[in-house]
């Protein structure tokens, strides 16, 4: 008997809509188009192939691939073999990948041909996918072996995981410091997170989901299962190329995609950008969208849905739920509201924002967590438990214990709760700028600076200041058409932006320094790496 | 910590959309309109009042009421007191109600003023609601006591049920024979069923749900929770009056309602019926809609969604999932497809149709259930287990054991599985007409006869026949405008309908007898009581 297992969504889709297009992979030499019927057969073959290869219930299977059918297959097929999917970030280095393979104890790796160099030190069997979908491709041969091994026993021949709290995935966080940590999530949690994502973003049978977010990132925020649950169609692209994205926005009936603000900025600023023929829901996470980005998206017929989450919460578990009153607001006011993290998803337990231990004080495991007041001012830490909180850090009881002080998972994100109950992230503790005893939020400063007409993207970090302790330093990418305008006059632009800041924010928050840059350091998932900016600042 | 508890939906709604209209009760002397903020406060008061009245976790609280705010409150408030809601059909007799009160062991009854006679023998405290929402109403006084007893502890002062598998409801089936049986369902199951109902019927923030289905029937198919989950608005009406329904279809922005086909027939035939200003989703269950009904609904802008379920499956757990190809079909063909029961809901385990033991053979508890082939012909029994199957018949281990032969709940409904995997009910075993060794389905005969232009509603049962063993007898209600046409000529109409049958169905299925009647015997939930028709036939 199976209760809450995201694999059930695939079997339903294959049963109810076998002829519906499930997945397409168009920008390769031999594009593929699989219906739910065909795709589920391929996934079944994968499950049998894994079992034949010796994979036992609970074993980890590592996947290294860009967005492509193989990694989509694996989100279902690995679970069908009662194994745990361990997707690995393709932008890691060989030592990092080796560490994860070692630490996860993965018994097998399936790797895309472009990333085989990452597993050259692997001590376990490696299956290579050439991403062709054709005979002769080692991955296809692997599926073939599975099919033969199945001896036509079909889905009925695959034993269903009896425990809904068994692990579904092991995702390593792309920690900016220290060793990556392995996040264990469950079948039940993946099922419930997928349900919430489908419902909260209104994905249905008619939806077409375009993959922009890497699927290796927190299992694509559970969208591989949410899309299937909705009987929707998904399009995979190996790379994120704004021209290609616009081709699909304009020609493929795309209705949904997920991406961090930085990617969204490149989308709205692409030369191909125009009104989309079908309304699109853009799911934004990673950081809050600015008013400018929201306005630019809406102008093109793209509705931003701002969600918030972490790998440890199955990706998104909060949403800035729109209010009817927002319709009458100015774009700026609306953006200010939409930029908040909001409330928990349908299937998540209510989020809490709790007082943090004072500086230097060791957190007391036994101490009860106390909520901050709903005053929009008092900062606390976002904590969560229940359906959409991870189980543990794999093979790291000490880190797990620390993360679950007081019985809640501690996000490390600092937030306030507004009088209307909406949670709004101020900053990660280390991103707060303490200037003359005042706490300045780098997020709020960025929101304001992004409104300047020449600013494409901006990131703000603290820089030591002899008088104030710290002061804000802004790193700015100029818009394409503004680059020439300020050519050789970056000093003047600095003055211009500082003047722009005055009156928009308190003096202690105004940037003391502005540097124009060509690009900002980002993680593979599009998050700006402030840790790198801070290192640059430290050397100034 | 709470995991899967439908009460969580109310708390979310009150937190995220406190000012949204949650529930209105317009057709009473003092209409009420409660926002989610106000409503959740009333429900909190109810929970405290129950606790003050001595209700302990797991206790049953009986509710006897027409659709009204009180019974809607109770679906949340009783759960908030960690008690079990036991809604009782208002159309039962005093001995039946007494039996249920006794058998359920209810510790308290909340009863609507119109039904106080039903609890005159009650041996437990009774709270009467005058359905006024005003001071002086005993129910309002009860809520007031709860508020005072709470001493402003709020929701935080109410202990949350820690076990998601604790009972949420005890619903007695309106058995046509024998004592009613009490169906125990769980918090988790109610949560998942509500999720599925909201998703499968596309209920969202913008939806307005009109109560037609009695809320006392299988907890209103979990819609009290599904509506709240979606942040939708609900309208309660004490009675089902087509004119009143049409007033709301035309003026209140109604988007969803649930009703059995008989009620739907009265809706489309009401003199007020016309094109609705906003598309409406009509959720149909109880029996399959006929082609005529589907056509009549669609003409008015009402889209039928055909679902199937039982009290033992939290109400609907299957849906006839529409296929894109249906759009090009004739109404009759489309109706034939939509009339099937289809596939399991999102959160339900896949349904099975299994061979039944041969006549007179005792079912073997240990024997494995075997699926019938997908040939559209071989009849078997619909069985189900998992998330959306009840736990047990309360205080009846023998009936529970019988119902769960082979580990699955046995629905008693006989069905076939079509080659496309859609399940279609043929008949309950006792509704099959065995004529000259052939099995004729009364459902299929009814579908055909309903196509006759003078037929408003029809029900078919077996009647003993000297030559063929059994033969079909049809009971027909004529359409209003056809009554005069056939006045005094029912014999001629019988001939007309028998001629109409020829060619439309095999000879052994054609009705041998036709009787024109003014009304058909129905259960309180609109199901035709074939058992009563069979008794009439037995006396002929």
From TrEMBL, chains A, B:
Family: Belongs to the ATP-dependent AMP-binding enzyme family.
Protein keywords: Fatty acid metabolism, Ligase, Lipid metabolism
Protein name: AMP-dependent synthetase/ligase domain-containing protein
A Pfam family of this chain: AMP-binding
InterPro entries on file: AMP-bd_C, AMP-bd_C_sf, AMP-binding_CS, AMP-dep_synth/lig_dom, ANL_N_sf
Any GO BP: fatty acid metabolic process
Molecular functions per Gene Ontology: ligase activity
Ranges where the AMP-dependent synthetase/ligase domain occurs: 12-394
Source superkingdom: Eukaryota
Protein species of origin: Phlebiopsis gigantea (strain 11061_1 CR5-6)
Ranges for domain AMP-binding enzyme C-terminal: 445-527
Residue ranges of the TM segments: none
């Amino acid at each position: 008997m199976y209760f809450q297992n995201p694999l059930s969504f695939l079997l339903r889709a294959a049963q109810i809509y076998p002829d519906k297009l499930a997945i397409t992979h168009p920008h390769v030499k031999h594009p593929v188009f699989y219906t739910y019927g065909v795709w589920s057969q391929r996934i079944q073959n994968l499950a049998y192939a894994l079992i034949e290869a010796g994979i036992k219930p609970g074993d980890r299977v590592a996947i290294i691939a860009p967005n492509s059918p193989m990694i989509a297959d694996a989100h279902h097929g690995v679970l069908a073999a009662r194994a745990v999917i361990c997707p690995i970030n393709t932008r890691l280095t060989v030592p990092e990948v080796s560490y994860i393979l070692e630490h996860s104890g993965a018994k097998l790796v399936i790797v895309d041909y472009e990333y085989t160099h990452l597993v050259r030190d692997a001590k376990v069997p490696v299956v290579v996918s050439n991403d062709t979908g054709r005979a002769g491709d080692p991955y296809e041969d692997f599926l073939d072996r599975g099919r033969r091994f199945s001896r036509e026993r079909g889905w009925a021949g695959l034993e269903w995981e009896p425990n809904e709290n068994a692990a579904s995935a092991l995702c390593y966080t792309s920690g900016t410091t220290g060793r990556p940590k392995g996040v264990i999530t469950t079948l039940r949690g993946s099922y419930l997170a997928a349900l919430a994502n489908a419902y909260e973003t209104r994905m249905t049978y008619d939806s077409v989901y375009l993959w922009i977010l890497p699927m290796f990132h927190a299992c694509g925020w559970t969208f591989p299962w949410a899309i299937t649950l909705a009987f929707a169609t998904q399009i995979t692209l190996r790379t994120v190329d704004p021209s290609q994205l616009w081709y699909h926005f304009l020609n493929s009936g795309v209705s949904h995609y997920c991406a961090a603000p930085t990617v969204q900025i490149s989308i709205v600023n692409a030369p191909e950008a125009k009104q989309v023929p079908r309304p699109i829901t853009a799911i934004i996470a990673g950081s809050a969208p600015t008013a400018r980005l929201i306005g630019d998206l809406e102008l093109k017929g793209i509705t931003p849905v701002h969600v918030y989450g972490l790998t440890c919460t199955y990706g998104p578990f909060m949403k800035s739920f729109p209010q009817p009153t927002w319709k009458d607001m100015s774009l700026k006011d609306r953006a200010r509201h939409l930029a908040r993290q909001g409330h928990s998803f349908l299937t998540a337990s209510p989020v809490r924002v709790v007082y943090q231990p004072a500086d230097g004080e060791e957190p007391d495991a036994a101490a009860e967590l106390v909520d901050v007041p709903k005053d929009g001012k008092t900062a606390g830490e976002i904590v969560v438990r229940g359906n959409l909180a991870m189980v543990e850090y794999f093979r790291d009881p000490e880190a797990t214990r620390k993360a679950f002080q007081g019985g809640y998972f501690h996000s490390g994100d600092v937030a306030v709760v507004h009088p209307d109950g909406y949670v709004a992230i101020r900053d990660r503790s280390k991103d707060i700028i303490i200037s003359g005893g005042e706490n300045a939020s780098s997020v709020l400063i960025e929101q304001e600076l992004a409104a300047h007409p020449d600013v494409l993207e901006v990131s703000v970090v603290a820089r030591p200041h002899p008088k104030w302790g710290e002061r804000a330093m802004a790193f700015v990418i100029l818009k394409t058409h503004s680059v020439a305008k300020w050519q050789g006059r970056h000093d003047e632009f600095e003055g211009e932006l500082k003047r722009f800041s005055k009156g928009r924010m308190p003096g202690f928050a105004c940037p003391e320094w502005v540097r124009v840059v060509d690009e900002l350091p980002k993680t593979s998932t599009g998050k700006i790496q402030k840790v790198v900016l801070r290192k640059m600042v430290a050397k100034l």
